[in-house]
Design a protein that fits this description.
Blueprint lengths: L4 H20 L2 E9 L9 E4 L12 E2 L1 E4 L9 E9 L4 E7 L18 E4 L4 E6 L18 E10 L2 E10 L7 H4 L6 E5 L18 H10 L7 E5 L5 H4 L4 H21 L9 E6 L1 H12 L6 E5 L4 E2 L2 E2 L1 H5 L9 E7 L3 H18 L6 E6 L6 H16 L2
Parallel strand pairs: 1-8, 11-12, 11-13, 13-14, 14-17, 17-18
Antiparallel strand pairs: 1-5, 2-3, 2-6, 4-5, 6-7, 9-10, 10-12, 15-16
Helix pairs in contact: 3-9
Length: about 400
């Protein structure tokens, strides 16, 4: 009897673990897509923020064709996908035909807004889409304002090569013989392809950093400054996260990019004139750089930061720190829709950790409950953010 008992206990333990997993994801959501513009042979995919929705990979979660014979609407083709989630899970999702070049669109060919759903009860959600993108090219919204310089495929140890775009403030190139002794603060930014040039931005909408700073500088609300945009790579998530790749990326920024910029342009190289900024994964990396290299950076811009979500966690690092207070200013903000809701608990935890470390006066948190996780939302909040950071 005593020899059998441990085996029985093991079986029971595994059964309870399996039961807990089942109960955790017990609410079924049926996603239905209706379209009059597609044929029965079309392949449709459900794409979204959750791992069960493919983590935004456009060709992972294939939907099942239902036909139109079961319904009264002739010519309306239907696809569906049934997936179970945990209660209160916040979902953000779209539909594609297998790539972002042919996702659902409006009549002008622009991508549709993301759909949002908070899982509460077993339900069916139906979406109608009759227009689809037919090209990888999106209509460009905006332009480059001012002077930019490019540094192509800059390499670093342990990271992938990337392009760097440098925006120069108004007057930088005017009468150089008179301005040769004028140096400028520098704002370094992650996801550099998304901040200045709409042609390289993910959805052809950029942060409008160039237009914003041109306006604020003209009104003397911020001093003239240089902006350095470091493009992300296919290894973006790992490079912007705590870990070996993240350490390599930080070394790249500090020991490769910054020396290049200081050597090439008229910068104020001291820490009090050096800022770091980004959004989402770039938000957590901005705090990481300011925290671990506070001798280099004195200000951090963290928009919609992924401080603590799923396997990511930089809150514990900050909370467990026992050394002298690091002297820097930090701006944190977030929205309130879709992925922003999932990021909120981690942001709340980080705010508490930073306050415990003494950052009450050196920190500003802003929340826009109606904002989504997008370049457009970050562009809207950027003017106030940069003005606060640049105040003495």
């Amino acid at each position: 009897m005593t020899k059998v008992l441990p085996k029985v206990i093991v079986v029971l333990t595994l059964s309870l673990a399996s039961l807990w997993w089942f109960l955790d994801d017990k609410i079924q959501v049926t996603f239905v897509l209706e379209s009059t513009s597609l044929s029965a042979k079309s392949n449709l995919y459900l794409v979204g923020s959750h791992r069960k929705l493919g983590s935004w990979q456009p060709d992972q979660i294939k939907m099942t064709y239902l036909g139109d014979s079961l319904f009264q609407k002739s010519g309306v083709h239907r696809w569906q996908k049934k997936i179970s989630f945990a209660k209160d899970e916040v979902l953000e999702y779209k539909f594609t035909q297998g790539s972002w070049a042919n996702e659902g669109a409006n009549e002008k060919g622009l991508p549709l807004e993301n759909n949002y759903l908070t899982v509460s009860t077993t339900q069916t959600v139906t979406t109608e889409i009759d227009h689809w993108r037919t090209s990888a090219e999106l209509p460009v919204q905006g332009q480059i304002t001012g002077t930019v310089k490019y540094h192509r495929q800059i390499e670093g140890q342990g990271v992938l090569p990337r392009d760097i775009i440098v925006w120069l403030p108004p007057g930088y190139l005017d009468e150089p013989q008179n301005n040769a002794d004028i140096n400028y603060p520098v704002l370094y930014m992650h996801d550099g392809q998304n901040i200045i040039d709409p042609n390289t931005s993910s959805f052809k909408i950029d942060w409008s950093v160039d237009e914003t700073l041109t306006h604020l500088i003209a009104e003397k609300k911020v001093p003239p400054m240089i902006v350095v945009g470091m493009s992300s790579t296919a290894n973006r998530t790992a490079e912007y996260s705590p870990g070996t790749d993240g350490e390599a990326y930080m070394n790249f920024v500090v020991n490769k990019v910054k020396p290049l910029i200081d050597k090439t342009y008229r910068t104020k190289a001291a820490r009090e004139h050096t800022l770091i900024g980004g959004s989402s994964m770039g938000g957590i990396m901005s705090l990481m750089l300011a925290w671990q290299y506070d001798d280099i950076f004195s200000k951090a811009l963290c928009m919609s930061p992924a401080f603590k979500i799923e396997e990511l966690d930089y809150v514990t690092t900050v909370a467990n720190y026992q050394g002298d207070k690091k002297e820097f200013k930090i701006y944190i903000d977030n929205g309130g829709l879709g992925l922003e809701q999932r990021l909120q608990p981690g942001i709340d935890d980080m705010l508490s950790a930073l306050k415990e470390q003494g950052y009450q006066k050196d920190m500003l948190w802003v929340v826009d409950k109606n904002a989504k996780h997008s370049e457009g939302a970050w562009a809207k909040r950027f003017p106030d953010a940069i003005q606060w950071l640049m105040k003495d």
